[in-house]
Write a structure and sequence with these properties.
- The protein is built from nine helices and four strands; from the N terminus they run H-E-H-H-H-E-H-H-H-H-E-E-H.
- The protein has 256 residues and is mostly helical.
- The chain folds into two domains: 159 residues, no CATH class; 77 residues, no CATH class.
- Strands 1-2 form a two-stranded parallel ribbon. A two-stranded antiparallel ribbon has the order 3-4.
- Strand 3 and strand 4 form a beta hairpin.
- Helix 2 packs across helix 3, helix 2 packs across helix 4 and helix 5 crosses helix 9.
- The longest helix is centred in the first third of the chain and has 33 residues.
- The radius of gyration is 25 Å and the shape is elongated.
- This is Peptidase M20.
- It comes from Clostridium polyendosporum.
């Protein structure tokens, strides 16, 4: 099963903890349902009912990898790299490659019990926010408020609404990472063959920590076949706004 999440302000560590909890709940629900159905079957065929032997088990890919690594050593990494290379040559989707790696490592573990394995796969888009608690980021936000208010007055239009968090996908997300280094390590360790499949320089991005401002279009249904934009704003007002904002910020003065 593949799940996509947009997260606002929780870390990778917290995401894993939440998914583990939900995974255990789902696993227990499945076991309870199977036991219930099996009990009904036993009653109908006049067979003595005993509960099924399975127990809830939810682990991360990092846990699975380390268990198998102890047994196989470097051979495990060779196996993972071989799978990655072969599937890349075939043009397989990166998500499928990650899944095949997890399946193979599970086979090598020789553990036949049912288990939920949590792992990450592409695309990963870092979440970042202009925080009021950060003096430089808050100064940027307040400066932007002044620029937009002045532009709105020049254009004789309503004031803009500014959000500290962009609720969609954006290339500017790769300029800054809010997660701490512990969460970043958890992301990489639970992302099968990160270096070969999706090696974005996330720690370098974290070190640079460049605040981003996204001037968006006005429209509906982003990334859907019904996606559309309001043309007068998107192709007329927005370009003027971007040029105006750039000139104001490069001019190093908000009073001009």
């Amino acid at each position: 099963m593949v799940i996509y999440y947009f997260v606002h302000n929780i870390s990778v560590k917290e995401v894993i903890e939440i998914l583990k909890q939900k995974g255990e709940e789902a696993f227990n629900n499945a076991i309870n349902y199977l036991n219930s159905e099996y009990e009904k079957y036993c009653y109908k065929v006049k067979k003595y009912f005993t509960k099924l032997p399975w127990k809830s088990k939810v682990i991360t890919f990092d846990q699975l990898y380390n268990e198998v690594k102890i047994k196989l050593g470097d051979k495990l990494d060779e196996e993972i790299n071989t799978i990655t290379k072969e599937l890349k040559t075939k043009g397989s989707d990166a998500r499928e490659i990650c899944l095949k790696i997890v399946e193979r490592v599970k086979e090598l573990s020789e553990d036949k019990d049912p288990v939920i394995i949590l792992f990450f796969s592409p695309p990963y888009c870092p979440h970042n926010t202009l925080k009021s608690s950060d003096s430089e980021e808050d100064m940027l936000f307040k400066s932007l408020e002044v620029v937009l208010k002045d532009f709105a007055a020049l254009e004789n239009m309503k004031d803009f609404k500014i959000l500290r968090f962009f609720q969609s996908l954006s290339d500017s997300s790769y300029l800054k990472v809010d997660d701490d280094y512990e969460s970043i390590d958890m992301l990489i360790n639970n992302f099968p063959n990160w270096e070969k499949i999706y090696n974005i320089p996330i720690k370098e991005i974290k070190n640079l920590n460049i605040p981003a401002v996204n001037f968006g279009t006005y429209g509906k249904d982003a990334h859907k076949w019904t996606e559309r934009v309001y043309k007068p704003y998107t192709f007329e007002t927005l370009p003027r706004l971007i040029v105006y904002a750039i000139k104001r910020f490069l001019g190093n003065s908000l009073e001009e």
